[in-house]
UniProtKB/TrEMBL annotation:
Name of the gene this protein is made from: Spata20
InterPro entries, A to Z: 6-hairpin_glycosidase_sf (IPR008928), 6hp_glycosidase-like_sf (IPR012341), Ssp411 (IPR024705), Ssp411-like_TRX (IPR004879), Thioredoxin-like_sf (IPR036249)
Pfam families in the record: Thioredox_DsbH
Protein name, entry field: SPT20 protein
Domain Spermatogenesis-associated protein 20-like TRX as annotated: residue spans: 7-168
PANTHER family: SPERMATOGENESIS-ASSOCIATED PROTEIN 20 (PTHR42899:SF1)
GO terms, biological process: carbohydrate metabolic process
Gene source species: Rostratula benghalensis
Length: 731
């Protein structure tokens, strides 16, 4: 390869996204003191550009502007330029995104913001084309205008930035308003169901027309609603909406039928043509959600989707040391000799390719049918391509096909006069051949950064799948990843989590020179993962670590005045605002999951202040929960768990005994959103017996494994048969 002409300070960073910009002619700095000092010393404005490695428009803006030598010169002359990976620094991203959304009415990435030397924002936007167009000002013009303003009207600009900051402080504050109590759970649940129901797509599932996101938080809310209202028409409606959505997503092009796993979202109403990047947080949450769907319905279809997601993650997003990588890009080179990347190139097919790969005549089908005919019919492949031009503004998918299941197996079999059993084998053979052909294509870029928060979501996915599908190998994979977190993303000396680590030379796991400390979401998703892992493995060490992390989270992030947790800790002078996220979106908001974590933590420790804190979070978000709970479906779900009090399911028995295992299988096979499982193994010196004195009074009846259902540490009569236990769990 040729020696790069330019190299900037990003070359010493670990983030794959920052490294992608290390050879731009722009003199990029990472976010940090060196850049801030330079801005102050030279009295220069800061240009802050925030993105992430799987962001399509980030690549476009880099190609057009940041690789342009003249634009680079304008940037270097007038500004101190800082590049941030939003996945490494969600705190920095959130502060300036709050500004961009408030001032321009929209937000997104790449985010472009201009700051005073003391980091206050005064102008911003998202993607800028390099030159002026009919409707948009070009990036070059904006740079020159802002530089001019700073020269001519410095004082006005500084005053204005101070006003903006005060306004932002005011609008972004979330705090308890006088009343100390959580909102009424029944109303919050009913309103949230109503709002989801009103936006539900009866035909294709999902809760918007287009684009359509998987949004697992909506589906988990619906499952919980159903579990608490099983016999009502509303309960049935909630379950039907969730299961139909999951079925349609699994059939759609958002699901990678050849390479497994799910793409980030669909650009159309039918889940057909996606943006092709694959994110770890989606795989983790969807594995858990499809596991619940299987637990509830018993339909193997959902179990197969779980296995599909976990196969993808184990194969393509797993580090040999046990951690999980962040994402795979959407864009890749169509062939080994291509000069430019295309969106979806790794995943799409022409009809000719498929016909050539599947030419075999099918025995037992109507005369002259080839495997290609059957495959193309089932997956909606067309000679001219199956992507409508509306879904393909850049003509990147012209003549190509995104596979989507168009017919039930019964209909496809009937179409070609095939036996149903044979059809399954034929489609599998077709998928395997396409998979082998795809392996010859250049792979999309892999973001090998490993984040504590997203690893937490993925551990929960493996642990819950292990429980619901009774698959020990998934529990083992979750255990391996939790051990990875403890080894690489935790500092035992301070008891604190770290945000990220990286795959370095020789595939070794590396840390940046100045490690980034964990944010609220890292603690919350890791604690949730450890509780899920305890319930799957019954290894008490994970429980002990979870409770230690919960204490640390309280210390670093709790807001004693306004209640709830801040997203970032105090004491970072470069952060202008400490915010609280109030949206359950592609990922749940940290405070939403924290409510359930606190309730679980209290059950395992007897530490009742945690229940009080859970109520205080709900109180802080009370107004939003009552008006627009659809913005916080995970927190709405948590109001119900808070209201119904978690039930402690205690199994007294020998962990190795067959009778104990049978009772555990019974608990694992039931979806119950407000249960907490613990195994009382009789070891009075063990962690749980030390935490919970009431366990000592529970005994095995006639020496058999015995279950108790306890609420607030008072227990039901003992039961020794799985049937009776099931009856108690599903009243």
């Amino acid at each position: 390869t040729s020696i790069p002409r330019h190299t900037n300070r990003l070359i010493t960073e670990k983030s794959p996204y920052l490294l992608q910009h290390a050879h731009n002619p722009v003199d990029w700095y990472p976010w940090g003191q060196e850049a801030f000092d330079k801005a102050k010393k030279e009295n220069k404005l800061i240009f802050l550009s925030v993105g992430y490695s799987t962001c399509h428009w980030c690549h476009v803006m880099e190609e057009e502007s940041f690789k342009n030598k003249e634009i680079g010169e304008i940037m270097n002359k007038n500004f101190v330029c800082i590049k941030v990976d939003r996945e490494e620094r969600p705190d920095v991203d959130k502060v300036y995104m709050t500004f961009v959304q408030a001032t321009s009415g929209g937000g997104g990435w790449p985010m472009s913001v201009w700051l005073t030397p003391d980091l206050k924002p005064f102008a911003g936007g998202t993607y800028f084309p390099p030159e002026d167009g009919v409707h948009r000002v070009g990036f070059r013009t904006v740079l020159l205008r802002i530089a001019e303003q700073w020269k001519e009207n410095k004082d006005a600009l500084l005053q204005n930035s101070q006003k903006i900051l005060e306004a932002l402080l005011h609008v972004s504050e979330i705090r308890v308003q006088g009343q100390e109590s959580p909102p009424p759970s029944t109303e919050v649940m009913a309103t949230c169901l109503q709002q989801l129901s009103n936006s539900y797509d009866e035909d294709y599932g999902g809760f918007s027309k287009s684009p359509k996101f998987p949004t697992p938080v909506n589906l988990n809310f619906l499952f919980t609603y159903w579990a608490l209202h099983r016999t009502t028409p509303e309960g049935a409606r909630a379950l039907q909406m969730a299961l139909h959505t999951l079925k349609m997503m699994a059939h759609g092009g958002i699901h990678d039928h050849i390479g497994q796993g799910f793409h980030r979202y669909s650009t159309d109403q039918h889940w057909h043509v996606p943006h092709f990047e694959k994110m770890l947080y989606d795989q983790g949450q969807l594995a858990a959600t499809y596991s619940r769907a299987f637990q509830i319905s018993g339909d193997e279809f959902f179990a197969n989707v779980v296995q599909d997601i976990l196969l993808y993650v184990s194969r393509d997003l797993s580090d040999q040391a046990g951690g999980f990588y962040s994402a795979e890009d959407a864009d890749s080179y169509p062939t080994t000799t291509s000069g430019e990347k295309r969106e979806g190139a790794f995943c799409v097919w022409t009809a000719e390719e498929i016909q050539a790969l599947l030419p075999d005549t099918v025995e037992g089908a109507t005369e002259g049918t080839t495997l290609g005919d059957v495959f193309m019919h089932h997956y909606g492949v067309k000679e001219t391509g199956n992507v409508s031009p509306a879904q393909d503004p850049h003509q990147e998918l012209k003549g190509k096909n995104v596979l989507i299941v168009r017919y039930s197996p019964e209909l496809t079999a009937a179409q070609f006069g095939l036996e149903l059993g044979l059809l399954g084998d034929l489609l599998q053979e077709g998928r395997q051949r396409l998979s082998a052909a795809r392996a010859q294509r250049p792979r999309p870029h892999l973001d090998t950064k490993m984040l504590a928060a997203w690893n937490g979501l993925m551990i929960s996915g493996f642990a819950q799948a292990g429980v619901a599908l009774a698959e020990q190998k998934y529990v083992s994979r979750a255990t391996q990843a939790a051990a990875f977190l403890q080894r690489h993303l935790f500092d035992p000396a301070s008891g604190r989590l770290l945000r990220s680590c990286y795959r370095g030379k020789e595939n070794a796991v590396e840390q940046s020179a100045v490690p980034i400390h964990g944010f609220l979401e890292d603690y919350v998703f890791v604690i949730q993962a450890l509780f899920d892992l305890y319930e799957a493995s019954l290894e008490q060490g994970w429980l002990e670590w979870a409770l230690q992390l919960q204490h640390m989270q309280d210390k670093l992030f709790w807001d004693p005045k306004g209640f709830a947790y801040f997203s970032s800790e105090a004491g970072d002078a470069s952060l202008l605002l400490r915010l609280k996220n109030d949206q359950d979106g592609a990922e749940p908001a940290a405070n939403s999951v924290a409510v359930t974590n606190l309730l679980r933590a209290a059950c395992y420790s007897g530490h009742m202040e945690w229940v009080e804190k859970a109520g205080q979070i709900l109180a802080a978000f009370s107004e939003r929960l009552q008006k627009i709970p659809i913005a916080l479906p995970e927190m709405a779900r948590a109001t119900a768990v808070f209201h119904h009090t978690l039930k402690q399911v205690v199994i007294c028995g020998d962990p190795q005994g067959e009778d104990t295992k049978e009772m555990l299988r019974c608990v694992h096979s039931v979806f119950s959103p407000n249960k907490v499982l613990m195994l009382a193994d009789g070891d009075s010196a063990g962690f749980l017996y030390r935490q919970l004195p009431f366990l000592a009074s529970l005994e095995r009846k006639e020496g058999k494994a015995t279950a108790y259902l306890c609420s607030n540490f008072t227990c039901s009569l003992p039961v020794t048969s799985p049937q009776e236990l099931r009856g108690m769990l599903c009243p």
